[in-house]
Amino acid sequence: MFAKPDGPGITVSGEMSDSEDLHGPAQLDASSSESLSRLFSPGDPEPLIVQNAGGSSSHVLVCDHAGRRIPRRLDQLGLAPADLDRHIAWDIGAGALASRLGLALDACVVRQAYSRLVVDCNRGPEHDDLIPAVSDGTVVPGNANLSAEAMQDRIAAIHTPYHAGLAAVLDARAGQDRIATVVSVHSFTPTMNGLARPWHVGVLHQQDSALSKRMLALLQAEDGLCIGDNQPYAMDGIDYTVPVHAQGRGLDYLELEVRQDLIANEAGQASMAALLARLLQA
Ligand SMILES: [Zn+2]
């Protein structure tokens, strides 16, 4: 059903599989706070993108690493354009997959517009990897020796409003007595440290999650799929979004990792979205 991983990881150039960004995020008002005005300039998008806020599904889809925008003032973080196409900058295909899944389920989708290299929104504000100086062996010059003020600007301008926006979506559901589950969508590179990763999809979970267990069993029952149970990563204390927004509220959750070569183009995204929508509605 799906191809085996090959090559040293894949890249996506241009706006392929990222086309929502052409008409998605609103432009920022950079004058609204000091951190925003230091980091952003005209033309930079809002970090928070909420699609289909009134969606009827109980699932709220979240994509922390959907985007790869860099605030213009940060001058591409000193990286070559090709590096900003790679998995170090974003979860290739994940934002487009989340959007398609949102349409299929009539679910709200909360996405983040900026690269994880600017600030990683699946890390706590105090975490060492929040703003990585090196990512998968690539030095990020624009993240070297950052001042405390520069770090705080990125947190205040991107991390804080993104998580406040997600919290507001979940608060609204709670206020309407609507059940909500948090479905976090990530993607992973097919090879890491020279090793091919055989899994098509991974389910990351910890503690008790009925939705994770159910989806793990349903995915494992599909023909031709190699499913990772806490692979290629295990959920642990490094994650931020699910522990804070789902477990912190007592909500059930599902955290998916999808191999990037399967969702690097629109056909793959459509196929994976159809599979996940079918199983999430089973
Ligand atoms: Zn991710």
Mean of pLDDT: 90
Radius of gyration: 18 Å
Separate helix tally: 6
Order of helices and strands: HEEHEEEHEEEEHEHEH
Global geometry:
globular
Q: Strand portion, in percent?
A: 15-25%
Task: Name the poorly predicted regions.
Answer: 1-9, 11-24
Major sheet characteristics: 7 strands, mixed
Q: State the CATH class.
A: Alpha Beta
Name of the CATH architecture: 3-Layer(aba) Sandwich
What is the percent of helical residues?
25-40%
CATH topology: Aminopeptidase
The SS-based structural class is alpha/beta
CATH level-four homologous superfamily name: Zn-dependent exopeptidases
Bound molecules: zinc ion
| End-to-end C-alpha gap | 20 Å
Structure description:
The chain is of the alpha/beta class. 28% of the residues lie in helices and 16% in strands. It contains 6 helices and 11 strands. Helix 2 (94-105) packs across helix 6 (266-280). The radius of gyration is 18 Å and the shape is globular. The chain starts with 33 loop residues before the first helix and ends with a helix. The model is unreliable at 1-9 and 11-24 (pLDDT under 50). Zinc ion (ZN) binds at residues 64-65, 91, 186.
